[in-house]
Design brief:
By secondary structure, this protein is α/β, with parallel strands linked by helices. 36% of the residues lie in helices and 20% in strands. It is built from 10 helices and 16 strands. The strands form 4 sheets. An 8-stranded parallel barrel has the order 3-4-7-8-9-10-15-16, surrounded by 8 helices. Strands 5-6-14-11 form a 4-stranded antiparallel sheet, with no helix packed on it. Helix 2 packs parallel to helix 3. The longest helix has 16 residues. It is globular, with a radius of gyration of 18 Å. The structure holds ligand RRO. The site of ligand RRO has 13 residues, from loops.
Length: 302
């Protein structure tokens, strides 16, 4: 069997599939269930300093090419999340804790507590496309990406990986800013800022009007972003956006990703998607006589 293991900034993964933040990840039980179903690692829902209920319904619209969401960062808050993280970690899961806040100090404080719970890495959500005063502004200013990353790096010992927004004109500048701030890896991409309107109602469907588009429709955008980032920085990249199959994952890997995250495909392929995508990657490696997946990272750059 081909070697599908990989590594992201020193975090060893048995395979390159990770659970993307925002799916089945607010409790230790669901995180562990996803890990046991085959994910190489699981990323938590973005956790903030206090509990948050999120936005009013409707918060999700199903579309042909994917899903539009405006959840509004619902989460139990960093204190209550401790017992959930423990369940996942005690069960043997590789856990990356996703963090948000309103300023660098808040990000750093939440990240420090999460790291204290024992998570293997920290993902910085700098890129929620519809949260006022939180991700959106940070994601639009390279200096803020550098500053927030540096603030968290100063407080935690585990690898730190900012998650970048595709809703900018040159994502490579933001990856560069993350690297300048000391990022150990970058995650690309968060959802695309988007809207759906109900013609009969003459109004946007989401209660929050704006949301983030995920799923197959955004995969070519994500692959392009990872390709551009790979040309700009030296840190490892985690690719995310519309991965449903092994071939989709291989696109990201050949663009430069060391691992991929999967979220929306849970709705179409179910919990077995992590094991299935891994098996599809392994079959490709065997057919192509490639022994190690790592040999294909960035292969599309020639
Ligand atoms: O919770 C959300 O509404 C949300 C977040 Br934090 C994010 O980063 N991306 C997204 O599409 N939705």
């Amino acid at each position: 069997m081909a070697d599908v293991s990989t590594e992201v900034a020193g975090i060893k993964l048995r395979n390159p599939t990770m659970l993307a933040s925002g799916f089945l990840d607010e409790t230790g039980g669901t995180l562990l269930r996803v890990f046991k179903a085959g994910a190489g690692a699981v990323v938590t829902k973005s956790i903030g300093p206090e509990p948050r209920a999120g936005y009013d319904n409707p918060t999700i619209v199903e579309l042909e090419g994917g899903m539009l969401n405006s959840m509004g960062l619902p989460n139990p808050g960093i204190e209550a999340f401790g017992s959930e993280a423990k369940i996942a970690l005690d069960g043997g899961a590789v856990v990356v804790g996703s963090v948000f806040g309103k300023d660098p100090d808040e990000y750093a404080a939440v990240a420090k507590t999460l790291a204290g719970y024992g998570v293997h890495g920290i993902e910085l959500n700098l890129s929620c496309p519809h949260a006022k005063g939180l991700g959106t502004e940070i994601a639009q200013i390279p200096e803020a990406v550098r500053e927030f990353t540096a603030a968290v790096k100063a407080k935690v010992g585990v690898p730190v990986m900012p998650k970048l927004s595709p809703n900018v004109s040159n994502i490579a500048d933001f990856a560069q800013a993350a690297e300048d701030g000391g990022a150990d890896a970058v995650v690309a991409i968060n959802t695309l800022r988007a809207m759906a309107i109900a013609p009969e109602l003459r109004m946007p469907i989401l209660a929050n009007k704006y949301g983030g588009l995920s799923g197959p429709a955004i995969r070519p955008v994500g692959v392009r972003c990872v390709y551009e980032i790979h040309e700009a920085v030296d840190v490892p990249i985690v690719g995310v956006g519309g991965v449903e199959t092994g071939r989709d994952a291989l696109e990201y890997i050949m663009a430069g990703a060391s691992a991929v995250q999967i979220g929306t495909a849970l709705a179409t392929r179910g919990l077995s998607v992590f094991a299935d995508v891994t098996a599809e990657i392994a079959a490709f490696l065997e057919a192509q006589k490639v022994k190690h997946l790592a040999d294909l990272v960035g292969a599309a750059h020639g």
